[in-house]
Amino acid sequence: MSSPYPVPSTPKVISPSPTPSESSEQADGYFTRSVAKRSRTKSPQPDTIAEEKTNDDSEGSDSSLEKRARTRSRSPILAPTDGIKKSEPLPTKHSPAANGNAIPPQVNGHLSPYSQIKKSWREFSRSPSPLGLIPLHRHYRTFIHKHEIPRKALHVSIGFLTLGLYSHGLQATAITPWLLGLLVPIASVDLLRHRLPAFNRFYVRCLGALMRETEVDGYNGVIWYLLGAYIALRFYPKDIGTMSILLLSWCDTAASTFGRLWGKYTIRLRKGKSLAGTLAAMFTGICAAWFFWGFLAPRTGPLPDDPAGGLMYKGILSLPEVIRNTLGWSKEESTISGVTAMTVMSISTGLIACFSEFVDIFSWDDNLTIPLISSAGLWLFLKAFG
């Protein structure tokens, strides 16, 4: 015998917890279309949740209707939003108005791989710089981007150029006008390319092999290199200024090279600085000082046109008079010369070099801070013991 309630072609899915009205209309475990229609008319749809309640008479539904709506729609019931205005943010998990239910979505960064990159180019890691802005860096990742071979070759060659000019007797007063003459047009072009994006792209295509990717939106390191060299040669004696440029050219390159190769095997002193790179800068500074003051300077000068006080280190180191009197030593007892003085001078130069390469002053470029700190440190050391 057929059932008085025929099975519909598309059966309705039964809710696991039907409402009392639905339970009363249930027959043989199924709902007919007429029963479902009557249940929809008996059970009103849930009203939208009011974001701001003005008075008690404007409430949309009571608790029983809200429960029935949840049973039919199976959607979560949001917590009461009393006192929350439309312009206010959603309550968090720990706020008293949230009641542990309404939690804003948390950003996990999976959909944006560059979400962790800072907007300021100063906050980028300088060793190595980010990849993707300069086409040559993408094509030559090891040669140009990772090891920066063209940039380091130019960096080191300036030191040899400085030694060549010094050995030919060229004075600092003849070099500083050239440095200033190069600084003005290079800085002007750098300012211009930041205001013209098309020109900046052309500039990067031409000189991208010598640039870091942080310099695409920042200033070129050549500007700070020229400024640091100008200050060292203009305001310090001849040998101090020359040694400062050598420390900038060779110690900075050695610290960057050895730090990237073996820095991961040593302790990290600060961001971007490892013990391997700092020790490499100190050793290079010792060798540079021994070569310059122990070999080149005695065979080159003094020259007839050298200014008064042009050479601060003359192969002799002695304690200051205050310390000598405190210790009760004579001038001869507190003076060293020859190999001993050269050893002390070289070690002191190496320590000054690694300190100037390691320290960070207001996030200034190290092409500026290294010659400033090293020239000031050498001048103070020789002023006290020279």
From TrEMBL:
Signal peptide (from-to): none
This protein's encoding gene: DGK1
GO aspect biological process, one term: phosphatidic acid biosynthetic process
Annotated spans, Disordered: 1-108
Enzymatic class: transferase
Origin: domain of life: Eukaryota
UniProt key word Cell membrane: no
EC number(s) reported in the record: 2.7.1.174
Coiled-coil region list: none
Protein name: Diacylglycerol kinase
Species in which this protein is naturally found: Lithohypha guttulata
